[in-house]
From TrEMBL:
<dbReference type="InterPro" id="IPR050271">
    <property type="entry name" value="UDP-glycosyltransferase"/>
</dbReference>
<keyword id="KW-0328">Glycosyltransferase</keyword>
<protein>
    <submittedName>
        <fullName>Putative udp-glucoronosyl / udp-glucosyl transferase</fullName>
    </submittedName>
</protein>
<dbReference type="Pfam" id="PF00201">
    <property type="entry name" value="UDPGT"/>
</dbReference>
<dbReference type="GO" id="GO:0008194">
    <property type="term" value="F:UDP-glycosyltransferase activity"/>
</dbReference>
<dbReference type="InterPro" id="IPR002213">
    <property type="entry name" value="UDP_glucos_trans"/>
</dbReference>
<keyword id="KW-0808">Transferase</keyword>
<comment type="similarity">
    <text>Belongs to the UDP-glycosyltransferase family.</text>
</comment>
Amino acid sequence: MVGITCKNILIVVSLVLSYGNAANILVMIPLPYISHTMNFLPIFKELAIRGHNVTVVSPFPQKTPVPNLTDIVVPNILNDLLDSSSTKELIGKDGLITQMITLWIFGLESMQIVLQFEQVQKLIKDTDSKFDLVVAESWFIQEPFVAFGHKFNAPVIGIMPAFFFPMPAHLSGNHLPIASTPLNKLGFSGHMTFFERVLNFFVYYWDIVVGDLYYLNKQDAIMRDYFKYPGSENLPPIQDLLRDTSLTLLDHSMAIGYPVPLHKNVVPFGGINVRGSDKLPADLQKIMDNAKDGVIYLSFGSFFSVSFLEQFMQDAILSAVGKLKLKVLMKLEDPSLLQNYSSKNIEVRRWFPQPSILAHPNCKLFIK
């Protein structure tokens, strides 16, 4: 199934490119979300293997060189974002609207930092290079990168690291049937009550309207501040550039979601990075084999940290999992957070081999 998905994506991408020729492809994924990058890389590696010249702008270079794939390494700005006073005040707070605004603030602050990088400015001012295709995570708080399509007169493929949020769905022309499709952020089932449908409707159009009037206008201003090249004075509004996106790739699998109609310019590719699991380290293998009641794997991902949560929320989580009979493997950046808990059922590490843990038969639950 994964192979078929990859093949289909490559066929669609090849239709965007010129027939029969190796293309120069620019990939913009400079934000410090390693889980996003690892999920996207199989596509770019395969394009390089098939003879295309792929240039990837990212803080995560290839450990093993890939022929035809060039890394432009930019600084990892994770700590800069986490130290931001505005995000510190909002992250981990309750409230759907607050969470949405937090994501927008992350996007605005990220772009103001990344677009100043020497490597990125060099690309913007480059008058010699030619790219036939631009691929960017422009549907996820990195909208200004669509301007590279205008600069290089190239089609743009937008990547979304999850299922559609309302604004990308709207701008891509793939409006969601909100009477039957619950938004990810709300956690409703496919059988919504009348009240849930009303709330679904409100949040959907709030994101579109406020996102357009507030967030995208600010991203448009940032784009015009940093994209200075011959012809940049004719840059269309960022909303129009996003609407002109030729293809959208969704890191989503219909096997684990509700059925949603998608246009032909939208291709889901969830699971394309799954390549089987490696053998567990000996100590973890022993822990999981000896867990008679099973194992819970608890991870907040590569970006979010438990320390972002208010103290009472940290206490509630750690107290709850500490009382379980099951063994709990917890990915925790700061093990000192557990110093007040003496439970022997919690194994804390900064990193776990996630695919191998999930593949073990004793893994009963994954909390993410």
